[in-house]
Amino acid sequence: MSKVSIVVPFYNCPYIDEALDSLMNQTYKNIEIIVVNDGSTKHSDKITPYLDKIIYIEKGNGGTASALNMGIKNATGDYFCWLSSDDIFYPEKTEVQLDFMNKNKALFSYTSYYCINENGKIITPILGIHLPNKFELIKTMSKGNIINGCTVMINRKIFNQIGVFDETLPYTHDYDLWLRIVQKFDIQFLSQPLLLYRVHSQMGSTKHAGSIKKETSLVVNRHKANMRQLMLRHFRKQ
């Protein structure tokens, strides 16, 4: 029975207890929950009731990528998932996605999701982009990130070949990793929404929109030559 490691980076987030409640309620029980406190100065007390049920790591502030990498380093599971401290997993998230991974012999998958507001109310239709083939996926991903990081499940073998998150990228470490992965592995999409993604005024993607745009261009350019070659290779196969 495969073990799934779920890493939760935490920094001053008032919603951390809701995130952890969603992990306590997972229908798949062979999981380990690793909370990495990235130098928080607020809301750490909300983690206290869960300490006997989680692996809790404190470190100096270094950003989300460094917290994720710390979690991966301490993980003992066969699979990795990431839950932001302001988001919520559906109870069946781990079970359904792991079953999907096994049936499709997948090493990487991502799913659909809903957006919720500060009060937890769903505010969007189902979100999630499914591309019909590898060529279309490569073409789309070479322009920007379409994968919500908290929907992914990754076989830990991938990290052995690709490496982990680039800690020099404060905002686009996930996009950079997906581009490295797509060059060597297939990416599978599960259309069932299994995540509630919280949209609120303090979220990083809102506060740092300008910086994210610049950093996205940097990542696109970093991988441009390899992605172009990959696109050409798959175009010829069509």
Descriptive tags:
8-stranded mixed sheet, 8 helices, alpha/beta, 238 residues
Structure description:
This protein is an alpha/beta fold. The protein has eight helices and eight strands. It has an eight-stranded mixed β-sheet, sandwiched between helices. Helix 6 packs parallel to helix 8.
Give the arrangement of secondary structure elements.
Layout lengths: L3 E7 L5 H9 L6 E8 L16 E5 L4 H11 L4 E4 L5 E2 L3 H11 L4 E9 L17 H8 L11 E3 L1 H6 L10 H10 L5 E11 L5 H4 L1 H29 L1
Parallel strand pairs: 1-2, 1-4, 2-3, 6-8
Antiparallel strand pairs: 4-7, 5-8, 6-7
Helix pairs in contact: 4-8, 6-8
How many angstroms does the end-to-end distance come to? Answer: 38 Å
Classification by helices and strands:
alpha/beta
Shape: globular
Number of helices: 8
What share of residues is helical?
A: 25-40%
Compressed to H and E, one letter per element, the order equals: EHEEHEEHEHEHHEHH
Task: Describe the largest sheet.
Answer: 8 strands, mixed
Beta-strand fraction estimate: 15-25%
Count of strand segments: 8
Strands ordered across the widest β-sheet: 3-2-1-4-7-6-8-5
- What is the overall pLDDT average? 95
Radius of gyration: 17 Å
Oligomeric organization of the protein chains: single chain
Which spans have pLDDT < 50 for at least 5 consecutive residues?
none
Summarize the structure.
The chain has 238 residues and is of the alpha/beta class.
